Amino acid sequence: WTILCLGGLLGWEESYFRHADKFIPERWLRHRPLGPIEPFIVQPFSHGTRMCIGRRIAEQSAYILIAR
């Protein structure tokens, strides 16, 4: 058996994100106007020993893209 949880579905969960149905980019700032969020809810690269080995490459690519 394999249990798979789709991370995108957690983004719509009101118990984790207040006003989940609204576009509020400020929710990701360090000082969140809507209060704190659970740090392990959003893990696009997984976590721990089975974490995606391309994480740093993807992050650096995003930094370069934003810097340009």
Describe the structure.
The chain has 68 residues and is an all-alpha fold. The protein has one domain. 25% of the residues lie in helices and 0% in strands. The longest helix is centred in the C-terminal third of the chain and has 13 residues, at 55-67. It is flat and about 30 Å long. The N and C termini lie far apart (45 Å). GO terms for molecular function: heme binding; iron ion binding; monooxygenase activity; oxidoreductase activity, acting on paired donors, with incorporation or reduction of molecular oxygen. Heme binds at residue 52.
How many domains would you count in the coordinates? Answer: 1
Question: Which whole number gives the mean pLDDT?
Answer: 79
CA distance, first residue to last residue: 45 Å
Structural class: mainly alpha
Q: Roughly how much helix do the residues carry, as a percent range?
A: 25-40%
Rg from Cα: 15 Å
Largest sheet: none
Question: Could you provide a short overview of the structure?
Answer:
The chain is an all-alpha fold.
Structure characteristics:
single chain; 68 residues; mainly alpha; flat
Topology, pairings included?
Layout: H1 7-10, H2 55-67
Family: Belongs to the cytochrome P450 family.
Keywords: Heme, Iron, Metal-binding, Monooxygenase, Oxidoreductase
Pfam families: p450 (PF00067)
